[in-house]
Amino acid sequence: MALVSRFFVVSFFACIALLAAPSSLPQDKGTPQDTNSTPHAFSKATIVYVSDFELDAEDVKVDKGGVVGEARPGIFERPRKKEQRDPETQAKKLVDLMSKSLVEDLEKAGYKAQRLAPGEPRPASGAWVHGVFTEVDAGSQRRRAVIGFGSGAAKMDLYVTLTDLSKPEKPLYEAPKEDKSDKKMGAAITMNPYVAAAKYVMEKNASEKTVKKAAKEISEQVAKNLE
Question: What is the pTM of this model?
Answer without folding.
Answer: 0.72
